[in-house]
Write a structure and sequence with these properties.
- The protein has four helices and no strands.
- The protein has helices at residues 3-17, 29-39, 48-57, 59-85.
- The longest helix is centred in the last third of the chain and has 27 residues, at 59-85.
- The model has no long low-confidence stretch (mean pLDDT 86).
C-alpha cells in the first residue's frame, strides 16, 4: 500500500476518535481507554511525553490497528449500501 494512503488513514482515524481532544489526545477518555486496553499498565497515567513515546514505540502495531479499523469501516459501509439497495 502506498505510504501516503496509510498516513491518510491514520490521520482520518485520529481525527474521528480524538474529537474534542485533537490538540491534547492524551486527555481523551477514548484514546486513554484504547491505550490502556492495548498496552496495559504501561499506558497508566498518560502524559503528553508518555503518549508520544508510546505512540512512536508501538507505531507498527498502531498502523495495523488503523488498517483493521479502516477495513471494518469499509465493510460496514458496504453492508449499509447492500441492505439499502435490496
Amino acid at each position: 500500500m502506498v505510504q501516503s494512503t496509510k498516513m491518510f488513514r491514520t490521520l482520518r482515524y485520529y481525527w474521528i476518535v480524538a474529537r474534542g481532544y485533537r490538540f491534547q489526545p492524551w486527555n481523551s477518555p477514548y484514546l486513554r481507554w484504547r491505550f490502556e486496553t492495548f498496552l496495559g499498565r504501561e499506558a497508566d497515567n498518560l502524559t503528553p511525553a508518555k503518549f508520544f513515546r508510546l505512540s512512536w514505540k508501538y507505531r507498527d502495531r498502531l498502523k495495523n490497528f488503523v488498517d483493521w479499523a479502516a477495513a471494518r469501516r469499509r465493510a460496514q459501509r458496504h453492508a449499509r449500501t447492500f441492505f439499502v439497495s435490496h
